[in-house]
Amino acid sequence: MKRRIILAGGNGFLGQLLARRFLSQGHEVIVLTRYPQGGRLAREVAWDGTKLGPWAAELEGADAVINLAGRSVDCRYHARNRRLIGDSRVNSTRVLGEAIAACARPPRVWLNSSTATIYRHSLDHGMDEAGEIGATPEAKDAFSVEVAQAWERMLEEACTPATRKVALRTAMVLSAHGGVFPTLRRLTRCGLGGVMASGAQYVSWIHEEDFFRAIEWLLVRDAISGPVNLAAPEPVPNRELMRCLREICGVPFGLPATRWMLEIGAFVLRTETELIIKSRRVVPGRLLDQGFVFRHPVLADALRKLAQTGSLV
Fold first, then answer.
1. Which of 116, 124, 144, 179 has the highest count of CB atoms within 10 angstroms of its CB?
2. What's the CA gap between 99 and 91, in Å, rounded?
3. How far is the C-alpha of 91 from the C-alpha of 84, rounded, in Å?
């Protein structure tokens, strides 16, 4: 069945991934973007992510809204960037809620981005959707957890009784076409694929194909609402991630990076060490309980597939 899908903030890495896959299946995709350029696969409609405008008419009668809007967290968390990160997530969620509430024929489902970072730094046990939420000084994640909570609170408070709402607590998406995997592969090939910090911190991840399949699956599961973890069932310690990367790259050794080296590197690269040192041991409790089957549940196999094919399947 052909669906009409609205992708808010859909010109980013994940938005383009979803747009390509939905379009390949014959669905209609409309991308809400701050900077329409034309020439892309999907039709683009201008919005600013803060206030209602002509774009809101696109939601009338749509099958689904998927909100991916949000300023990248790969930056230094100074005051201006903190404001941009928080506002871009909360405001886009607020205004989409207002637009859906005003629809005579509102979308059936609204999937809104969130983050697996919302859970407490954990080394000793996995975090499903009932896991503890909160910040840990060791992980330097107070700001990120605060933003995640405000983001989900805005979704929860939106008055859209005819539209099912799902918060996508997404882990690191591994793709050959963008995101972190190409960067990690380059670093590894340059001899920088060693253990980062203690190496004990867990990394939660999901292969790009399973990310799309989970989104597609959630669109038609009318009984599922609220938070859902989009993560593979087997998170791994950083040391295992780096070992797998060295293996697929054919590099026998990688220089390790201590905590103080990461702090210096993050400053030079204008990013934050939280992205590396926080232990995200997130597991997909609700997906597994409801029968979702992962095609790429094991990290080594998922990385090998990406390295060999460079494709979306």
1. 116
2. 12
3. 10
